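Two quick folds needed for the group meeting slides. Do the first one here.
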Amino acid sequence: MDMIESGLDPAEFAATAERAVAACATLESRARAARLAEDGLLGVLAGEEAGGLGLGLRFAVPVLVAAGAGDLGFPLLETLLLAGALEGRKPELVAALVAGEARGTIAWSGAARLEGGRVSGTLGRVPMAGEADWVLVPLTDGGAALVAAEAGKVEKAITLDVTVPEQVLRLEGAEPALLLDAGARSVLEADALVLRAALIMGAAETCITLAAEHVFTRRQFGKPLVAYQAVRHLLARHKLGLEGIRGAITRATTVELEEGAALLARQTAFLAAATHGPSIAEGALQLFGGMGFTWEVAVHRYMRRIRALEAQGGVPALREAVAARFIEAA
């Protein structure tokens, strides 16, 4: 659906998403799904035949930015991607995801084996697997399989993220409900990079806002912290980094590019977020001092979320791949 033809502006989704995310703060997981579905946010990427909006990534970005800024405890990125990837393949499941009646997630680490039509293996970095109905797991052949979460064993994992905690899923002879080929999985993973960058941007922007409020009100030696030049310079550098993330995401979602260039734009958008996001969160922690590590100050939760998202995207390997591509082109 073209933005002009639809009469929609991606910015219009931001206000709706902010209200929905704020409302979810006092709700449990399943109620959060229903609340997000009520505002149509779970169907941004899903086809209209399944009750979705059939829009592109540029419309999903402000929704994910709001989720990152509001510290939303729900696997929204995974739900949006699943609903989009399963379009035309599992319409009933897509409709259930869009309506908030089913919950899905994606394993971002490890790979399972497909043998004799059954899936076995150990998958890591599975956001909120214990509350999911369906999990998309990567396969060793490059494709992916959709399996019922109850078909595997969910175990606790060491994770920094306290908002959308990651878990381990162990499968032994699980029957897949659907298989995606390597091409479909590649598209999903490329789209995930942009949406992950949007989550990081929202979290980083909130860190800057919280830090700015703190230095304007906190006084030391008879004057507010913001009066010190080093503090102002630190905030300015982080604001510049935030705008770098925003610009990279904008290019990846609004500029018409050839297939290879489009993938590179998605990769660089995520790398920009993975570079500046942690720095912004850590800078905000520095301005709060020891207070930043207390539960009363939210900054450290955003830093944990950012670091988890950074790990899910496999930053070291991605940096090497992008660098190799630039060297080859030169």
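Then this one, please, same format:
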Amino acid sequence: MSGRGRWAAITAAVILMCAAGCRHEQPATIMVITPTGGLEYWEKFDHAVRTNAAAAGIHIELAAPQSVTDYTEQAQMVENAVAQHVQGIIVSPAHQLVLTSVLQKAVRAHIPVVIVGTPIALSDKDFAAFIGWDEAEAGRLAARRFVALLGGRGEVGVVGVSPTVEGSSLIEKAFADEIARAPRVKLVGVKYGLSDWARGNQAVLDLLSEHPDIKGIFTTDEFSTHAAAYAFEQREKKRPLLIGVSDELNEIAGVRSGRTDALVLSDPHELGTRAIQAMKVALAGGDARSFSTQLPVTIVDAQTIDQSPMVAAVLKNSD
């Protein structure tokens, strides 16, 4: 080989090595897709994801549909992430079935997927890890508290998100099953607010109108919890008991003031932290299944809220 040929070969090799090194130094890009935006819960989750990802040298891109019932929009976001060849996907599915086909595309593209929040209808081998919160226990805790507060007698109702939203449905079923164990407490109605304040408010008013003797209402998301508290404030006569699922700061304050009788909450910061821990292992080619878990939930009232470690964690991570 001539001198000029050798130098050309060396130069080409150096360029290839530099290109490989530059690619190696670029941080992995992870797409994080939550069920909806505009909620403190998912804002806190996103904050935990960003903080932990930055410490791990991972680049995060965030996406969320406007409503938790926008299943096709969330599926399209997953589809777009696969098309962009991101290195990983963290997703909280709004619907158990709608995302299955697009997530299988991620599997075929060898993109690790960490499922958070709510389970999905995929085989365990099709995702890196599942990190959720115990939605069934949320329903059971609320039902037991109603039974205790009502002295084992009375009518109760539920305002959920949608019968097709898996997380809300899990909560509702566990609540109904637990209420059925108390023979003199009756579940008289289930309405849906579709994660919309105005619809949630109307759902509460409909329950009150259709069941004038109702003694308690259980709300399974932040929108309906806030809507019920507002609807009750407008009533001149004694309001029904209200137990909600929410970690919104306004609803925590409502427990202290007596606007809400009890609140079921989980820790979104812990959910986000664990999601990144699992993804970091998956990106390194490791087995992230050991990170799969269901995080605990708790129920608090005016007497216990200031002693609750979970409330303290939620307030700390809201600063």
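Slide caption for protein two: The chain has two domains: 9-131+267-295, 135-265.
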